[in-house]
Design goal:
single chain, alpha/beta, ten-stranded mixed beta sheet, two-stranded antiparallel ribbon, 36% helix
Length: 338
């Protein structure tokens, strides 16, 4: 929306630099604080461009204060959730690209809620700006951004790409390309278009199964027409061309995909790649029939990957008790906060 206002009013470069600096980098808390612009120009901006396209932000904070989830709404009243995860090394923001999700993966609470709409690039960016302003008050900043919230980025490709261009623009948000990760379930045609753009961001593939049959049972909407064989072929071609590592997200579900045999099949699938397997233990949800793997199973699974020289790590889950962990974003308010 800011870009449309700039073009419509044919603003000179110095005016563009001023709004970019104050809105994205300072960052201001209202158009009234855009003091480098005249009162008249500010009034025109206020009439035409909402300061935020998301409204009614509610915050939910974990007991250890390391996780903050917001629930906000689009102007149509659709929910959007965003999660800030804090550690000593970084402040990672998990953002949504849709309200709800049409993919319907059976292990994901977001996929079980109603799909409302893809978010505009402004609605994506406003999630970031909310937390950028919040962190700025304590002289902190966002260090990493992951597109791992509500929605499938490849099904909202143009808006996601527009948002990424704002994030990496040094005159706007200015975050390094390798500090951005886009997670996708693997819609092959759209993923190829995304990879061909060579934006320089990291790509994470929501894999969750080492075989086509099991993947179809867990992710039927995407897996049937976007086969595991075709997906892996695309990613190997990309790696040979760009020499970039691919992260594979693998959610461990008790007695479903967490056995030693599953680990062996996964290692076989990824043996010719520059790959990192990001193991995630399932975060329980009342809406879903799955249970997390035992510690013993997880260790055995990792030992198989290690023995076959498949790089892997076990992701720490943030914000479980406020329904902010991976797969829990479903417009469900934490019981303690409701």
């Amino acid at each position: 929306m800011i870009e449309e206002f700039i073009k419509k009013n044919n603003l000179p470069k110095y005016k563009i630099d001023q709004i970019y600096q104050q809105y994205y980098q300072s960052p201001i808390n209202s158009w009234d604080e855009l003091t480098t612009w005249s009162l008249q120009l500010r009034e025109e901006l206020r009439k035409e461009v909402p300061f935020s396209t998301l409204e009614n932000f509610q915050e939910f904070v974990s007991k250890d204060k390391r996780t903050v989830k917001t629930l906000a709404y689009t102007h149509e009243g659709y929910p959007v959730e965003t999660v800030l995860m804090k550690s000593k090394e970084r402040n990672t923001l998990c953002i949504s690209c849709m309200s709800g999700c049409p993919v319907g993966c059976k292990f994901c609470a977001t996929g079980q809620m109603k799909f409302n709409k893809p978010l505009t690039s402004s609605e994506i960016i406003d999630q970031i700006m909310y937390f950028k302003r919040k962190l700025n008050s304590s002289k902190e900043n966002i260090t990493n951004i992951v597109f791992m919230g509500m929605g499938e980025p490849m099904l909202n490709l143009n808006n996601v790409v527009d948002a990424i261009n704002i994030i990496i623009d040094p005159k706007r948000i200015g975050l390094g390309r390798r500090r951005i990760t886009v997670s996708t379930v693997g819609y092959i045609d759209q993923l190829k278009k995304f990879l061909d753009k060579d934006l320089g961001v990291k790509v994470a593939i929501s894999l969750h199964a080492p075989t086509q049959k099991l993947r179809e049972s867990l992710m039927p909407t995407v897996a049937k027409d976007n086969t595991l064989e075709d997906l892996i072929d695309l990613l190997i071609t990309y790696q040979k061309k760009r020499n970039k590592k691919i992260t594979y997200e693998y959610l461990l579900l008790k007695d479903v995909n967490d056995t030693v045999e599953h680990a062996k099949e996964l290692a076989k699938l990824l043996r010719n790649q520059i790959a990192l397997v990001n193991l995630i233990n399932f975060n329980p949800s009342k809406e879903l029939p799955f249970q997390p793997s035992s510690r013993k199973r997880i260790i055995a699974f990792q030992e198989v990957l290690d023995s076959r020289e498949i790089n892997n790590t076990l992701r720490y889950s943030y914000g479980n008790e406020i329904n902010a962990a991976c797969g829990q974003l479903a417009n469900i308010k934490p019981e303690a906060s409701s």
